[in-house]
């Protein structure tokens, strides 16, 4: 049967540490059996469940050991582990692609400079990056934190079609900081686009002749 060759790590008591019990390592008199498509077969003797697994060329995997009786499912355990590892790798890669850009503003920023900085923030958000925005106070400006808050709120409103405030404005010494994140759908799309671009560049680099 598939999956019977691999032995998972075991504790001092001989129990599996990180993986479920499968096939003949499931040593209980009876189990609640779930079919490969999620269909409920019912409570059956363990011998019958193992026979069904062998006849189907599938593994018998314990998915709820604490239930009474334990719940087991018929599946291709090797394929299941491979797909789970692929999903975990993809999640880690997408997480690594998230970058935090930084934009600094003066409290008394002129209109032209504000528009320029806002344009940079919009570009970062379109690229799927988070933006940490810092308002810097000078001298007596530190006594007017509400002005910094208003400036950050104004910027958040101006870019609301592209991003959402992830971390509300808060005072940090002489600065006030806020974080804006791209909308989830936008971030997912841009992560996929950047991932494809990176893979394409890597492929071209491998095929390029040496300098």
TrEMBL record:
Entries under SUPFAM superfamilies matching the protein: Translation initiation factor IF3, C-terminal domain, Translation initiation factor IF3, N-terminal domain
Keyword entries, A-Z: Cytoplasm, Initiation factor, Protein biosynthesis
Keyword Protein biosynthesis among UniProt keywords: yes
PANTHER family in UniProt: TRANSLATION INITIATION FACTOR IF-3 (PTHR10938), TRANSLATION INITIATION FACTOR IF-3, MITOCHONDRIAL (PTHR10938:SF0)
Region (Disordered): 1-21, 183-211
Subcellular location: Cytoplasm
Stated name of the protein: Translation initiation factor IF-3
UniProt biased composition (Basic and acidic residues): 12-21, 190-200
Domain of life: Bacteria
Residue ranges of every copy of the Translation initiation factor 3 N-terminal domain listed in the record: 22-91
Pfam families in UniProt: IF3_C, IF3_N
Domain Translation initiation factor 3 C-terminal: 99-183
TM helices/strands, residue ranges: none
Main location: cytoplasm
Claim: Protein biosynthesis is one of the keywords in the record: yes
Originating gene: infC
Family assignment from sequence similarity: Belongs to the IF-3 family.
Function in brief: IF-3 binds to the 30S ribosomal subunit and shifts the equilibrium between 70S ribosomes and their 50S and 30S subunits in favor of the free subunits, thus enhancing the availability of 30S subunits on which protein synthesis initiation begins.
PROSITE patterns reported in the protein's UniProt record: IF3
Subunit structure: Monomer.
Species whose genome carries this gene: Modestobacter marinus
GO MF: translation initiation factor activity
């Amino acid at each position: 049967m598939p999956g019977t060759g691999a032995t998972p790590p075991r504790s001092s008591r001989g129990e599996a540490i990180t993986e479920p019990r499968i096939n003949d390592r499931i040593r209980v008199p009876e189990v609640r059996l779930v079919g490969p498509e999620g269909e409920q077969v019912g409570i059956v003797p363990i011998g019958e469940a193992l026979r069904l697994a062998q006849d189907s060329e599938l593994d018998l995997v314990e998915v709820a050991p604490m239930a009474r009786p334990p719940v087991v499912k018929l599946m291709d355990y090797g394929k299941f582990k491979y797909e789970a590892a692929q999903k975990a790798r993809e999640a880690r890669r997408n997480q690594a692609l998230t970058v935090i850009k930084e934009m600094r503003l003066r409290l008394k920023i002129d209109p032209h400079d504000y528009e320029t900085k806002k344009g940079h923030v919009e570009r970062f958000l379109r690229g799927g990056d988070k933006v940490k925005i810092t308002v810097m106070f000078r001298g007596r400006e530190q006594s007017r934190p509400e002005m910094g808050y208003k400036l950050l709120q104004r910027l958040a409103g101006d870019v609301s079609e592209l991003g959402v405030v992830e971390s509300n404005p808060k005072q940090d010494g002489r600065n006030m900081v806020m974080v804006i994140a791209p909308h989830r759908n936008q971030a997912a799309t841009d992560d996929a686009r950047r991932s494809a671009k990176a893979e394409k560049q890597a492929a071209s680099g491998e095929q390029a002749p040496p300098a």
